[in-house]
Specification:
alpha+beta, four-stranded mixed sheet, 4 strands, 57% helix, globular, disordered C terminus, Glutathione S-transferase N-terminal domain-containing protein
Length: 220
């Protein structure tokens, strides 16, 4: 059994999708980010960085894993799925996973902060992160022109990237003129695990509640 500590964010959705896709038994333990559950000592013992998601593998000596990319790698290796066996394709999948972890996620995260949440509008910051997000989307679009999925076969690289790209509107980043990226997004959204994963944990907040919670976290 996997204990899955999460909240309704793109990084949390990645792991939810992977767990669904892999068919691994898991228990959801939602954290209230606005109440700073992620900073409580009991969670910091699992993830010293105080961020979601994190997992504890109860079947492997209560082994804890944090950082969403590391969790995806751990789960894929545990199940023997969603990571190509061929060494070159495996490397490609990990490269695109790192592209998401080091580029798409951080840049879109900063775009979200300055475009949606930061109490003061700073046009230069908004433009900087939206432009970089768009550039990264163009890299994806160019690659997907020749590949159905990021590492040719469906993998944790796609699972890591899709939850971020799907919220491009929230970040204020256009996907117009990127047909290959759009086609890949359409393929992803048809997958039952993707459809279910973005509902875990269930979300009861209104959009206004989410903005208020995020603003509180930014100013703390």
């Amino acid at each position: 059994m996997i204990d899955f500590y999460t909240a309704a964010t793109p990084n949390g959705f990645k792991v939810a999708i992977a767990l669904e896709e892999l068919g691994l038994p898991y228990r959801v333990i939602p954290l209230d980010l606005s109440a700073l559950d992620q900073k409580k000592p009991e969670f910091l013992a699992i993830n010293p960085n105080g961020r979601i998601p994190a997992i504890v593998d109860r079947d492997n000596g209560d082994f804890a894993v944090f950082e969403s990319g590391a969790i995806l790698l751990y789960l894929a290796e545990k199940a023997g799925k969603l990571l190509p066996q061929d060494p070159k394709r495996r490397s490609q999948a990990i490269q695109w996973l790192m592209f998401q972890m080091g580029g798409v996620g951080p840049m879109m995260g900063q775009a979200n902060v300055f475009y949606r949440y930061f109490p003061e509008k700073i046009p230069a910051a908004i433009e900087r992160y939206q432009k970089e997000g768009r550039r990264l989307f163009e890299v994806l679009d160019s690659h997907l022109a020749q590949h159905e999925y990021l590492a040719d076969e469906y993998s944790i690289a796609d699972i890591a990237t899709w939850p971020w790209v799907r919220i491009h509107d929230w970040s204020g980043i256009s996907i117009e003129g990127l047909p290959h990226l759009q086609a890949w997004m359409a393929r992803m959204v048809e997958k039952p695990a993707c459809q279910k994963g973005i509902t875990i944990p269930p979300r009861n907040e209104t959009p206004e509640d989410l903005v208020k919670q995020a603003q509180q976290m930014v100013t703390r």
